[in-house]
Amino acid sequence: MKIVLVGYMGSGKSTLGKLLAKKLKISFLDLDEVIEEGLEDSIPNIFMGKGEIFFRKKEHEYLNNVLSKKNNFILSTGGGTPCYSGNMETMLTLADHVFYLKVSIPGLVKRLLLEKEHRPLIKNIEDEDLPEFIGKHLFERNNFYLKANHIIDCDDKDPESLVAEIEQLLA
After folding, report:
1. pLDDT for 84-103, tens place per residue?
2. φ, ψ (nearest 5 deg) of residue 3
3. In CATH, what number is assigned to the domain containing residue 47?
4. Binding residues
């Protein structure tokens, strides 16, 4: 079974993906890590050195590669992955399930304020400007996210209950 998790940064894709993979006894893959291993460089370095267009092309290649070859896994994608190069259509075609982990703007702000230093995209944004930044991004990305097979509302739910909710949809 191929399961893909999409959603904005901080929505819990990696956390839930790892928990779900453990529960289902299948492997967990993080697309950003797959790209970093393949290109032998970090995502921020790739963005700075070769630019976003290069990164998005490579992201598309690696996504296709993972979805075409591997079997039985949970794949966590980058927040922007579904929005470029027809990636959402690729996921919907090649994966068995695509889940959008939906978190409200206030929910994302609350989560991301705690990890701002580790998030290059928002590191230099003033705390009071974060809701507007996230809102604008979500507005741009929502049409892609909403194409997922399943939409999971993640606000005010702990990871274990979200994993249980996903498991029920897989049964």
Report:
1. 999 999 999 999 999 999 99
2. -120, 130
3. 3.40.50.300
4. 10-15, 32, 56, 79, 119, 141
Mean pLDDT within 51-71 = 93
In this predicted structure, what is the pLDDT of residue 84?
94
- DSSP assignment, residue 124? T
Residue count (the chain): 171
Q: Quick one: pLDDT at residue 15?
A: 95
> What distance in Å separates the CA atoms of residue 89 and residue 110, rounded to the nearest whole number?
31
Question: What are 12's two structure tokens?
Answer: 């819990």
Domain count, the chain: 1
- 6 pairs with which residues across the strands? 100
- Detail the residues annotated as belonging to a binding site for substrate: 32, 56, 79, 141
Q: Can you give the residue range of the structural domain that contains 15?
A: 2-170
Does an H or E element contain 75, and which?
strand 73-76
For the stretch 104-131, pLDDT in tens is 999 999 999 988 887 878 888 999 999 9
Dmax (CA) for the chain in angstroms is: 44
Give the mean pLDDT of the chain.
Answer: 94
Annotated binding site for Mg(2+): 14
Report the binding-site residues for ATP: 10-15, 119
